[in-house]
Amino acid sequence: MKFICYREFDDPEEPIHPGIIIGSKVLPLARVLTVSEAIHPQNLTIPDDVFELIGLLPVFAKIVKALSVTKILDQIWQEVGVTLAPPVPRPNRIFGIGRNYADHAKEMGNEAPIDEPIVFLKASSSVIASGNQIVIPSWAERVDFEGELAVVIGLAGKDIPREDAMKHVAGYTLFNDVTERNMQTRDIARSQPWFRSKSIDTFGPLGPALITADEIKDPSKLTLRTEVNGELRQEASVGDLVHPIDELISFLSRYFALEPGDVIATGTPAGIGPLKEGDVVTVSVPEIGQLTNPVAAEM
Ligand code: ZN
């Protein structure tokens, strides 16, 4: 199931609705619920709390799968206005993973960390949807794109053994870990955290949709690409992660009880580079979709 959050009008004051994508159409999740009473667990409702809803995505994915054979979802479709919001509109936490593809670590003059992952926190206030502008601040020197696969946690857990880790995944989406590179380099030289250079407003494109874990049997088979103005800049197999997804979940859960809606940005492959005003940057995985953002300069 491809899960999205959307507004019916392009206005941040409008309420956010949960929906699913069927082919090229958007169906409000509320309509799925109304036609599935016979098959869904009693008292199933759509929680107002999006984190609670993300925890229930496996249940909704099963319902949608059962309904898809009946063709009823095509029949109940009616056109709604859709302005995408991020599939997790304001994650509680975005865990960034540094240098998690060996070829990217190398291009930055670093070794990939073998013993354990590098973790940094990225502010949720940086998150924007596919289609929204990445805004380069007037003082910025070098703003880089970093295409990444993002894992969204669906099931809470602490001290999760590696062999159980994938049960905690609600699904997968795409992330652009936009970074002010010169600031990051200076901060690293001063032994300061990566947080600031990665958390600037609009530096966290997330989306377009969350594809539920039942549809991605083996995420290591996914191919991640980033294009700038239609030109291929990054291409990698998720199987090349130095620290794979199950290890990241197990590792993080040792320190932080994971919660539904937590996002793990799994790291970026080689090919990162600067963005400038007027560019359009697209991160894609065929099974998930395209996260596309135009780049603007601060007025
Ligand atoms: Zn990154």
Task: Please give a structural write-up.
The chain is an alpha+beta fold and 299 residues long. It folds into two domains: 2-85, no CATH class; 94-297, Fumarylacetoacetase-like, C-terminal domain (Fumarylacetoacetate hydrolase, domain 2, Alpha-Beta Complex), CATH 3.90.850.10. It is built from eight helices and 19 strands. It has helices at residues 29-34, 50-55, 57-68, 72-76, 102-107, 181-189, 195-198, 245-255; strands spanning 2-7, 17-22, 25-28, 83-85, 94-98, 118-122, 127-128, 134-136, 143-145, 147-153, 169-176, 179-180, 204-212, 223-228, 231-237, 263-265, 273-274, 280-285, 289-297. Strand 2 and strand 3 (25-28) form a beta hairpin. The longest helix has 12 residues, at 57-68. It is globular, with a radius of gyration of 19 Å. The model has no long low-confidence stretch (mean pLDDT 94). It binds zinc ion. The site of zinc ion (ZN) has 7 residues, from loops.
List keywords for this structure.
299 residues; alpha+beta; Fumarylacetoacetate hydrolase, domain 2; 11-stranded mixed beta sheet; 8 helices; 19 strands; binds zinc ion
